[in-house]
């Protein structure tokens, strides 16, 4: 079965093709046959196209024009033509899986996309405005290019549907509960994959582990995972809650918002922009939403970059502490995402504060760009894992399993 996976962002679209058969070992992530990425350049009338195949073929181009559907059609064209060709025709694609950030209360498992499902994803765009609209665009682009191929929605919120009410319900008026205002949590595909992979690396039963998974990228969230289920997480009703992020503020006093609305004449649109696009590392440092650039500025003595680092670390440590309280103990701390996988300094800072629990990080291993390995010392009471998240493969797995059930 050929499964095409779309992972949509607000300014990019990642696409990859997997081939899965009954002989495929589903708990091991294979290299995709083909993978592509469209980067839409802000303030430019065009897109960067990057494609590579498992056999080493590479394509990089800049495409003029502002038609996202045309860009998408072009990247699909490279599946069947030129040096990056891996299939003879697009009809060889059996199913298409989409990462959908917000599924609301109604979608707690992966589902085959119907018109009703697509419309529901569109309605939920108010809760994930940077992502759900892009997912809808991808669904419609696939329908245009591949016709009535089976499409599947895999929701980032699904893994957190096991949150107990005490963790999920906000202490506002009870009417909020009836209106669906609650903690949904996000990055669920990544948190679930990393939990399963952690158990494999440790050679232990996931149903007996207490894990804290730290997905740290431009967006950041933690999940407390007990017996394979998410029981607490830092993101909330929207992906804006929780940790300090690249350009999102994370948790703040809601009284600040009331103050800005009353005293500074902020509109809802201005608040949305400031909280989502002009806060976090970017807002504090004044340098960038990219932690690498903030670190470089910090090393050159930039005081605002140092402050951004300090706040980021403080919020991360505090978040881990809150997850510890929910778990009542810890077997492994897991780092993933662009920052979690590539920043030894952040891992070091996140771990050092828990030495009183017997957690000991191996400083040498931590610096060696570890992937899917334990970087704790042999005598550490808590294992520390760095795992390369494989969201696309996790989506392909869920498509395969859903199609097997439906057939």
From TrEMBL:
GO CC field: cytoplasm
An example Gene Ontology biological process: acetate metabolic process
Catalytic function, reaction form: acetate + ATP = acetyl phosphate + ADP
Keyword ATP-binding included in the entry's annotation: yes
One Pfam family named in its UniProt record: Acetate_kinase
Keyword Nucleotidyltransferase assigned: no
Functional pathway: Metabolic intermediate biosynthesis; acetyl-CoA biosynthesis; acetyl-CoA from acetate: step 1/2
Molecular-function annotations in GO: acetate kinase activity; ATP binding; magnesium ion binding
Major localization class: cytoplasm
Annotated cofactor note: Mg(2+). Can also accept Mn(2+).
PROSITE patterns recorded: ACETATE_KINASE_1, ACETATE_KINASE_2
Enzyme class: transferase
Amino acids binding Mg(2+): 7, 391
Binding residues for ATP: 14, 215-219, 290-292
Necessary cofactors: Mg(2+); Mn(2+)
Site (Transition state stabilizer): 187, 248
Catalytic site: 156
Function in brief: Catalyzes the formation of acetyl phosphate from acetate and ATP. Can also catalyze the reverse reaction.
Name the record gives this protein: Acetate kinase
Native source species: Trichormus variabilis SAG 1403-4b
């Amino acid at each position: 079965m050929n499964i095409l996976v779309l992972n949509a962002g607000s300014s990019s679209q990642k696409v990859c093709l997997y081939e899965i058969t009954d002989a495929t070992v589903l708990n091991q992530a294979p290299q995709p046959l083909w993978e592509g990425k469209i980067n839409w350049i802000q303030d430019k009338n065009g897109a960067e196209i990057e494609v590579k195949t498992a056999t080493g073929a590479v394509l990089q181009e800049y495409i003029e024009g502002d038609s996202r559907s045309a860009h998408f059609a072009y990247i699909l064209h490279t599946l069947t033509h030129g040096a990056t060709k891996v299939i003879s025709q697009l009809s060889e694609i059996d199913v298409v899986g989409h990462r959908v950030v917000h599924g609301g209360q109604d979608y707690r498992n992966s589902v085959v996309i119907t018109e009703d499902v697509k419309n529901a994803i569109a309605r939920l765009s108010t809760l994930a405005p940077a992502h759900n609209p892009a997912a809808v665009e991808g669904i419609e682009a696939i329908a245009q290019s591949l016709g009535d191929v089976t499409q599947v929605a895999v929701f980032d919120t699904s893994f957190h549907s096991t949150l107990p009410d005490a963790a999920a319900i906000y202490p506002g008026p009870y009417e909020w509960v009836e209106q669906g205002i609650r903690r949904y949590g996000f990055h669920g595909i990544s948190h679930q994959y990393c939990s399963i992979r952690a158990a494999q690396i440790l050679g232990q039963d996931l149903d007996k582990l207490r894990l804290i998974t730290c997905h740290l990228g431009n967006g950041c969230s933690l999940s407390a995972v007990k017996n394979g289920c998410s029981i607490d997480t830092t993101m909330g009703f929207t992906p804006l809650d929780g940790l300090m992020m690249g350009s999102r503020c994370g948790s703040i006093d809601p009284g600040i918002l009331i103050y800005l609305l009353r005293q500074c004449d902020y509109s809802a649109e201005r608040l949305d922009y400031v909280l989502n696009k002009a806060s976090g590392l970017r807002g504090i440092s004044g340098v960038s939403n990219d932690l690498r650039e903030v670190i470089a500025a910090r090393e050159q003595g930039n005081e605002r970059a140092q402050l951004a680092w300090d706040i980021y670390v403080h919020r991360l440590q505090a978040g881990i502490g809150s997850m510890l309280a929910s778990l009542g103990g810890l077997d492994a701390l897991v780092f993933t995402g662009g920052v979690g996988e590539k920043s030894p300094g952040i891992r070091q800072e996140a771990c050092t504060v828990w030495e009183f629990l017997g957690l000991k990080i191996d400083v040498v291993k931590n610096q060696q760009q570890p992937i899917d390995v334990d970087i704790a010392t042999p005598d550490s009471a808590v294992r520390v894992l760095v795992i390369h998240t494989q969201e696309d493969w996790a989506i392909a797995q869920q498509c395969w399993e859903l199609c097997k059930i439906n057939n």
